[in-house]
Design brief:
Number of domains: 1
Structural class: mainly alpha
Oligomer: single chain
Distance between the termini: 27 Å
Strand content: under 5%
Shape: globular
Order of helices and strands: HHH
Number of strands: 0
Number of helices: 3
Length: about 80
């Protein structure tokens, strides 16, 4: 999986991957891409495996949107 490779490359250069965030968390423009299926199938398992964060419930950057409950049941009350 590409995320494992990226994390390994970062570590091989002395760094550490700390977070995996969605496009929607960083930009309103990216709010429709790539969506819940990728988040649920890839990002959520990688958070646990690599012990990284998504910023936490309600996290967003600038004008981005928080991860909604429809994507992650931890995000109670956050609407799409």
């Amino acid at each position: 999986m590409a995320i494992r490779w990226i994390a390994a490359m970062i570590e091989s250069h002395g760094g550490k991957l700390n977070a995996i965030v969605a496009h929607r968390q960083a930009s309103r423009i990216g709010s429709r891409s790539p969506g819940s299926a990728l988040w649920q199938a890839v990002a959520l398992p990688m958070h646990q495996e690599l012990k990284v964060t998504d910023g936490g419930v309600g996290f967003r950057i600038g004008t981005g949107y928080a991860i909604p409950e429809a994507w992650d049941p931890r995000c109670k009350g956050i609407r799409y």
